[in-house]
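[job 0412] stage=complex_fold ligand=S-adenosylmethionine status=START
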Amino acid sequence: MLKNLVKNLSSIVPLSQAVLEAELLVEFISGYKKKDFILHPDLTLNKEQQDKLDSLLEKRLDERLPVQYIIGEACFMGEMFDVNPHVLIPRPETELLVEEVIKSAKNMSSPKILDIGTGSGAIAIMLKKLTDCSVVGSDISLPALETAKANAKKLGADVEFVCSNLFEEISGKFDIIVSNPPYIPQREKENLSAEVLREPSGALFTEDADGIEFYDKIISQAMSFLEDGGCLFFELGINQSMPVKSLFENRGFSDIKIVKDLSKTDRIISAKCSYNT
Ligand SMILES: C[S@@+](CC[C@H](N)C(=O)[O-])C[C@H]1O[C@@H](n2cnc3c(N)ncnc32)[C@H](O)[C@@H]1O
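[job 0412] stage=complex_fold status=DONE, emitting structure tokens
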């Protein structure tokens, strides 16, 4: 049964991914894990479970709905987050962003952190869980915020959520502002997989040609919301480190740091706000 499922799934994804997706779908339907099939080779799904699996497989193959939306969960930094088509599926690259923010937060005493474009709440919630900080997560999308609130409750993280177009409804000052903003230019739509296109377009795309409009808008207002010595952290898209670095320099930020991901792509940028420079 697993073999058949893997074969079907491998018509749309590489074999290694097909294996993982098959295991996730079967576990979702039946609670059986891979080890159960190894220990009990005769194990099969009952008729009801098999029918459900067939209908989910159809959604995956015909509608190209990402497996995380089908099972309603995605793993981020070892925790399971509820996800649905209102929120971006949190990515492994974004774990690096959280790790970098944590390094900085650990040198501060109970920092106040703002996560702009919180989506599922992945960044805000993990920062709250892993550091001694207070966190505000904001998003322009109300359904995304509902998902983030549910995740915070499920994972026991006390995060404040605010519906806001960038800084419009934000008040007060923060020691750290972090954002994984939309950064894909519209013209790149045709190069994206059918699965990515099932994610909310407001989480993915920018209106400008280079995908840097959100960085520009956030950097240009951030000084008013950062404490003296506070830091701004972003996840970056491909080829965006140099333009974003220039935006930081033009606004008088210092200590600009770029971190590469495992594939040696510039992925995270951070910079410091000093009032007297
Ligand atoms: C790339 S997703 C990041 C989601 C989540 N932080 C993560 O890393 O998985 C960008 C998020 O920004 C939100 N967003 C888009 N435009 C916004 C705006 N003008 N103000 C606030 N949030 C916005 C989207 O709704 C989406 O949740």
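The longest strand covers residues 226-235.
[job 0412] exit 0
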